[in-house]
Amino acid sequence: MRLLTAVRCHTNPITISLFDNHPPIGRGDVVEIQGPASSGKTHFLYQLLLSCILPRAESSGTPAHQGTSAIIYDLDFSFAILRFRRILAKRISCLFPMFGATEHAELVQASLRRLHIFRPRSQSQLAASLKYLPSYHVTRMPENEIGFLAIDSISTYYWPERLREEQMHHFAPERARNRSDILCSVLAALGDVIQLYSPVVVLTNWGLHAVAQVHHPHGPAVLYKQHLRHFPMLHNVSSIGTRAIPENCDSTILSRSIVLAHHISLSCPTTCLPSARGSLVSRQAFQDGEEIEGRGCGVVGQITSSSVQGNRPFQFLISGDALTQKLQTES
Asked: Mind listing the pLDDT tens digit for each residue in 308-323?
């Protein structure tokens, strides 16, 4: 059953095109979204999630087949399901304009049934949940493919766990010496899930310490120091502020290490930004070059990919529950 599930879950391709002339996100890719509080990380996550759970549209405008299922680990308790439902309903109405309200509501409910949200209250619970995800898949959703997995945010319980670890090293060094690093356990379990299902993986991460600022026409984009020890890095790209892998990290994790395909860094948003051109969402919703009315919060960011040299700036607009807009990246 485990082998058949793995084979089935690799048959449905996923391609998320973020920007023109930039490599898309595909199955098995790991994406880090890093930024300070209220920088749009969760809203950006909504857009990526929509690309996976939405039904695929044929050229005639009718649903071709259902999307894949998504697993969300909402560690920050910030995933607003009602807001996401509104965004989902707007996207479906744009994708299938010939349908009526009843058909739209049915598609919304069908898409939401493919969304599974977990809220672990510690890194240990997160590691255990990831470890037993295959069992949950077989018993609770055997007919659905897992095409998307997100942890929002992987930073949430890191520092409390780090404090307990340092206290244990101080007061009970013998006990601490035999204790494995919890984040290592999380990454090991996540690596097993990636090998089994090859989903798109999105890890949101706090941006605590700015180490560089890049100026471009859209505004300053900030790069942040990586505050998590032994966090995945981009392949062939030196990571800013990387830390050495701790001694108490299981060496078997190194043999199946997770490599980032894309790193997205978001800056603090600016308010009352004029509307942007272009679209992060489907071209059925907005055609290229269409002017979007209204004003909102503009977020400037940078994307770095393992297959592309250098950083590429971008900008998107958040206006209430409106879909995210983007400006084309620069070469």
From this structure: 877 788 777 766 555 4
